[in-house]
Amino acid sequence: MVYIFRLLQRNLAFDVESGSLFEFDDLGVRVLEAYAANGGVRPSGGSLPDDADTAGVADEIDRLVADGTLFSESAMPAVEDLYPQDSPIKAMCLHASHDCNLRCEYCFAGTGDFGTGRRVHLDLETGKNAVEFLIRASKGRRNLDIDFFGGEPLLNMGVVEELTAYCERRAQETGHRIRLTVTTNALLLDEKRIDFLDAHMDNVVLSLDGRPETHDRMRPFAGGKGSYERVAKRIREFAEKRGDRPFYVRGTFTRNNLDFAADVAHIESLGIGPVSLEPVVAPPEASYAIREEDLPAILAEYERLAVQCLESCKNGSSLRFFHFEIDLEGGPCAFKRIKGCGAGAEYVAVTPEGDVYPCHQFVGLPEFRMGNVNRTGDDGEVVLDQGLRARFRELLVPNKEECRSCWARYFCSGGCAANSYHSSGSIDGLYGIGCELQKKRLECALWLKAAKAEEPPVL
After folding, report:
1. I want to staple 419 with a disulfide (CB 3.0 to 4.6 A). Which of 105, 113, 180, 431 is the partner?
2. What is the distance between the alpha carbons of residues 47 and 63, in angstroms, rounded to a whole number?
3. pLDDT tens digits, residue range 212-270?
């Protein structure tokens, strides 16, 4: 499949299977569209103008077809090859705390307690059981990932520190590499904690929504006072210490700030990128929820943000927006692109009580509870609901009719199961707004690649 589109004065063609990107002039687009209408084969019988320029373009397209960079064959693996019968679990979102020092209005975790009314912390024994569960469930896979999450995980800093040491020791003993991440609102960062996270975390995710008024509107303290000033200060301090080692700022935009490119620019001005600014997913009755009528404004804002990123690059500051950073030469393998995050199959979340869920966004929903790391069978293994795991293993691009024919399928990977569930009531449903935003972000990312190229292949 070749996706042909025009964006910001550029005609672009993206071959879905090979990942090749080309820029065409207007004649090239007309010829390429004729090829697409003819199944990727050179049209005959007068369907193209009979002149030297058109023939030259067609000859070049024939060459690209022959070398597999245009209208290339599908590389989609068979469904049965994607997951073995008993697939390993390789990543875990470990909830260090179901409590928070903020009261974010849009929080899917119900201000930290996931709607339970119980504000609890992970104890060390349950945390160790979770780590051991991951090591056993990985079935020998070397690279494992654990994200300390919440609520706010730094409210339970002592256990985070002890579990970090435990992970490092068990990695040496078992031959695994356990990569650690922490996701924090940054309020509790001080010199000691910054030093610890910098020394031991492979990645750090810091929450900031953008401009002071944007951030404070949705991320206040319990008493209603805005948190921007303290959060921004702590993140700048961490960024100064961290240098070039991996971290990024993660925020959320709502219908209250559809001009979110200005929020990205503000974060860049603080010198604390890279930046990921995600669209809120909320009940439709929420005042801040994104609605169908907001889509035109959001799509236009992504285009403004793409231009902003290009200008930043030209000025030497190189703004990095997470959703625009795609790798067409390498990146995830075909298997990974079709499976996505692997929620419920290769990735799970564990609560402070030890309950296992498919991911952090399903925590607290009884129908998605898969087991508990503190409870094992006669063989000493944690007993998981394999029927539920099987349902999540089926969430693959080849199993979704809408995804199989979508040009963005290898980047979207079928979308987020939690977003699908909350918007449609089914984990294999379609979150239409999310699809539209994903495709626009990808168009902008491709446009940015072409615009940054010193010598883009214009045909």
Report:
1. 431
2. 20
3. 999 999 999 988 999 999 999 999 999 999 998 999 999 999 999 999 999 999 999 99
